[in-house]
């Protein structure tokens, strides 16, 4: 009797765990992140060049990455946009700085190797809206080949190279058009 009860408990617990994993890794087709004056649609992230997680669940890593980049964009956009304006992006490709490499059992996770030959890249279309009126519209394909030399060594924020790439674009390209 005890063995049967223990067996049934094990089935229930393992079923609950499996359903928890299935729910935890649900992927949104085209996720949208929004913060302050910025709205970003991440179009078909499965086709992005490199947004690989080095550890953990891929969908959670993507969500954290998208939210962090949106937060960074909002911080910079808030400085240059007028109070009634909003920046909307549709990202069609993202290639994070570095390349994911296996550790062949040395650790549980892979590592992201950051070197000059793997620069950050992002492709997107954008529009600046003022109410329902379109103020600026365009397409960009950004790459920072000198990313290792333009970001300070003491900067240890996640996605610092991608954030700087987007901040530089806003200052050099978007701000003069507004």
From TrEMBL:
Residues 1-24 form the signal peptide. Keywords: Signal. This is DUF3016 domain-containing protein.
């Amino acid at each position: 009797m005890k063995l049967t009860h223990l067996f049934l408990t094990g089935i229930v617990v393992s079923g609950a765990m499996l359903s928890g994993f299935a729910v935890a890794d649900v992927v949104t087709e085209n996720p949208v992140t929004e913060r302050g004056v910025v709205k970003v649609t991440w179009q078909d992230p499965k086709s992005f060049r490199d947004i690989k997680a080095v550890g953990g669940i891929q969908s959670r890593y993507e969500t954290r990455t998208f939210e962090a980049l949106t937060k960074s964009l909002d911080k910079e956009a808030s400085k240059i946009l007028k109070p009634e304006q909003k920046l909307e992006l549709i990202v069609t490709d993202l290639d994070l700085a570095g390349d994911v490499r296996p550790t062949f059992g040395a650790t549980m996770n892979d590592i992201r190797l950051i070197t000059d030959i793997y620069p950050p890249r992002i492709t997107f279309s954008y529009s600046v809206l003022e109410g329902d009126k379109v103020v600026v519209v365009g397409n960009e394909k950004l790459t920072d080949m000198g990313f290792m030399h333009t970001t300070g060594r003491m900067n240890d924020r996640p996605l610092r190279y991608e954030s700087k790439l987007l901040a530089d674009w806003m200052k050099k390209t978007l701000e003069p058009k507004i």
